[in-house]
Amino acid sequence: MEYILTKEGSTPFFIPVTDPTHSFPPASGEVFFNPRMELNRDATILVLSLIRPEQYLDAMGGTGVRGLRAAHECGLSVTVNDHHPHAVDLIRKNAESLGIDVEITWQEVNSLGSARHFDAIDLDPFGTPAPYIDSLIRSAKRYLFVTATDTAPLCGAHLRAGMRRYFSRPYNTEYHTEVALRTLLGFVCRETIKYDRGIHPLLCYARSHYVRLHLEIRPGAGAADRSLGHIGYIHHCSRCPTRKEQAGIIAETSSCLGCGGKMRAIGPLWLGAISEKPFLARMQEALPTLALHTQNEIHSLLSRCREELDLSYHYEYHTIAKALGRSPPGIEAVLAFLEKEGYRASRTHYSGTSLKTDAPAEVLIRAIGNL
Ligand SMILES: C[S@@+](CC[C@H](N)C(=O)[O-])C[C@H]1O[C@@H](n2cnc3c(N)ncnc32)[C@H](O)[C@@H]1O
Ligand SMILES: [Zn+2]
Fold it and tell me: Residues enclosing ligand 1, CB less than 6 A?
């Protein structure tokens, strides 16, 4: 295998040489490594530096970068696993050249998850994490982090695959990235609560081609029941901008209060908070103390997540402006209008042109159409 040396945070490590002419270069190396996931890894290093788990399992290590960074930059006790022998060789080489002591295991992840317990587990698979959540939730004592890159099934673009994997009915709306995040959260919640444990999101977000969860796992049937209380549906009117949240495991049928049209139920999915706001504040405070190359992007992401309202849908307000035949006003003017009318309104982390509000559809239409 041919390698080149690279660096993330303060950690140097070897990655395989890839073919730049390949349709997806990270997949052309003998071991998978995607440099575009640096922010994903940096944000997790920041989370780890605050929660400081006793033992962190990088369950699908690849080059081992996540686990090695956690050991080198946060001083954590770490296990790095992969089922591919080339990956295990590279993880070993990287650990040796860093001179750090990490446990390296060569196992199928569900066997490892069924056999042992770890304080915090990070699952970073190719595509869907669905086949691995059950074993890893049994294995995780306090924290579970999950990446999903199968955004097409999660957000409704590949409907059947999404329903098979997540047992939920997404619907391809203009807020499909949020539906993807909440569908995955809903799935992980259901896999967890059957063991009388609950989930508590610390930092969850959707970005470029992936969805990322950082969850605290809380013990007890009470915690599980509280999590179950956050499962429900978004009712979506496709004729006007009316959306409605409904808690519960059975979807009710309803008509749109704005236009009388039929509402379509999306879910079941997670309706609760996707992050813990005080934790986000602590992350922002700690950010300058770490050597992270994506510091500025993480700062912006955290700011947006902090201001985002805890509603489970958002609007791409340019879409509404287009439907009204108007050129879109500035987002700050729309938010100010909604607040002046007595409603809550915020930007979101999903895109620069998305907003959240509890204002009814006709007020939102007035805000966008009259400015
Ligand atoms: C997306 S890559 C991991 C990338 C790495 N975490 C990073 O941040 O660069 C997925 C890795 O999981 C490994 N893998 C896939 N299925 C597995 C399984 N069932 N058990 C253990 N490892 C698996 C692959 O060999 C691959 O190295
Ligand atoms: Zn309607």
Answer: 31-33, 37, 41, 60-63, 65-66, 82-84, 87, 108-109, 124-126
